[in-house]
Amino acid sequence: MPNVSGQSTDTICAIATPSGIGGVGIVRVSGPLVEAIVVSIIGEIPPARYAHYSTFINANKEILDKGISLFFPSPNSFTGEDVLEFQAHGGPIILDQLMQTILACGARIARPGEFSERAFLNNKIDLTQAEAIADLIESHSVLAARHALRSLQGEFSSLINALLSSIIELRVFVEAAIDFPEEEIDFLASSDVKDKLVILLQELDKILAQAKTGSILKEGLSIVIVGEPNVGKSSLLNILSGNDSAIVTNIPGTTRDTLKELIDLDGLPAHFIDTAGLRKSADIVEQEGMRRTWDAVKKADHILLLVDSNKDTALNNHPMLQELIKESPDLDKITIVKNKIDLNSQKAGINFNDEIKVHCVSVSVLKNIGIENLISHLKHVSGFTINEEGGFIARRRHVDALNRAKLSVEKAQEQLLKYKAGELLADDLRQAQLALSEITGEFSSDDLLGEIFSSFCIGK
Ligand SMILES: Nc1nc2c(ncn2[C@@H]2O[C@H](COP(=O)(O)OP(=O)(O)OP(=O)(O)O)[C@@H](O)[C@H]2O)c(=O)[nH]1
Ligand SMILES: [Mg+2]
Predict the structure, then answer these.
(1) 138-216+395-441 CATH pick, 1.20.140.10, 1.20.1440.80, 1.20.120.430, 3.40.50.2000
(2) What is the pTM of this model?
(3) What tens digit of pLDDT does each residue of 168-208 get?
(4) Do 408 and 428 touch, CB atoms closer than 8 A?
(5) Which residues line ligand 1 (CB under 6 A)?
(6) Ligand 1 mean position to 293 CA, how many Å?
(7) Residue whose CA is closest, atom 16 of ligand 1?
(8) DSSP 8-44
């Protein structure tokens, strides 16, 4: 852990380039032993931030390679500590020998994400920026990379910090009034606090919407397709993905296992999960398949219940719908897809069924009719909106924290309007502040930090 001066007591090193053979391989070192290590390997301390070409030697004075040393003295480095990057030829043996030499000088191998963790602990970046580094590296689309870069540049953090300032300002105001009880009532009656809470909620909603899109970009939406055997679940997966990943036959019970495909729905990344049809079966393999189906239902962001539009099972009495609602009570998460309308006179389209309070989309997967309605409906219910000018990458934990902050501000509003309870209002504002501070890492538990940084790659 870093000490007060920002320097860690131990020095870490890692190969920062991917394993395998390449033109250049980079070994990164950070910590108090950097100067001693570079002197032992190249015989001198290279000038700061200058590409210094020299020979790399080991403790026995044997030449390992020739390459570049880049020295970033503390505090002007990524981690805030002394950092050195050795650029050698990108072969595993050369890099391994270089690592052995550095380790022999007293450094240790870095844990995944430890360089970023040190940058965070030394206040070089906040937690959302550290996460954005990993998200940028792992991004699967240009859009996701662009959004990660915006987070890395601090756009997300500055929105959160602006919210935090407004909350702190309001808290100071409220707490000052509590200290002067004679004025508390007047103060609570003034429209100023009421208006400020309304603005705060509007701002929170705006950022929450952006964070939801950012988190979908990062993690993808998980959409599970369920239904009785033979209704066309695998056919739907195939038409959405544009290839024949799932086996389709007219034999009920074709799909035995869950099958996952990442599909790009006009920019919205979605993991579609095809499942084993649900029915009573004595077959052990099929039973296991159905258990997996329910497992996927529990974890899904959205559920598509496929039904055969030619069978006249009334939807308000559909046994599977009732079971689904038991597993996933949020009706907004369920869409009924009435398939095979090519075999009857039903029209493609989307409607809200008032009786069961669920959206129904009529399609023919076989004839590719009405699929675009389904896609736009999914985009709509997920709240996914791309704004080319703004937007940032986000994670589920950010969305959770924003939701908790929103709930606290709504409670604060209730304390004010219903109960005129100044102290409770102040406490709710404090809760909102805590939730938001978790996002930038100002108040985050060690466990959370450990979890975040351990998912990074080595050398980052
Ligand atoms: N007429 C018509 N047939 C369809 C449509 N969609 C799928 N089918 C046919 O229905 C049969 C079953 O399709 P699948 O996609 O295998 O159905 P499933 O729901 O995955 O079935 P299981 O894996 O057995 O649970 C196949 O013969 C498909 O060609 C449609 O829109 N219209
Ligand atoms: Mg199937």
Answers:
(1) 1.20.120.430
(2) 0.79
(3) 999 988 888 777 776 666 677 777 889 999 999 999 999 99
(4) yes
(5) 227, 229-235, 248-250, 252-255, 277, 339-340, 342-343, 364-366
(6) 18
(7) 248
(8) BSS-EEEE-SPSS-EEEEEEEEESTTHHHHHHHHHSS
